[in-house]
């Protein structure tokens, strides 16, 4: 991923978390450690989607990522030109609703 993308993503995170961008230099920093509320996370997702013409499946899962993972996710979305679920969790048990 280009440094430019990382710089832009960090600026967006800083804006929505209300923190100086300089505090986001650790790629291991988890987004849930920042002061973003649910609305801030959704606004961050919308800004990323608009800026890079991509789609993030579940904005609330962004909080489970660290900054480096978010950079990687956006780079993968840009490269694929499509949507990607952040974490694809298969249900432990499959239930056919029609039979219930």
List low-confidence stretches.
Answer: 84-97
**Multimeric organization:** single chain
Measured by DSSP, the beta-strand proportion falls in under 5%
Strand order of the largest sheet: 1-2
Q: What would the average pLDDT be, to the nearest integer?
A: 81
Helix-strand pattern: HHEHE
Radius of gyration: 15 Å
Structural class by SSE content: mainly alpha
Shape: globular
**Count of individual beta strands:** 2
Distance between the termini: 47 Å
- The count of helical stretches stands at 3
The main β sheet shows up as: 2 strands, parallel
Helical proportion, percent range: 40-55%
Provide a descriptive summary of the structure in words.
This protein is mainly alpha-helical. The protein is 44% helix and 4% strand. The chain has a two-stranded parallel sheet with strand order 1-2. Helix 1 packs antiparallel against helix 2 and helix 1 crosses helix 3.
Topology overview:
Layout: H1 3-17, H2 38-52, E1 55-56, H3 67-80, E2 83-84
Parallel strand pairs: 1-2
Helix pairs in contact: 1-2, 1-3
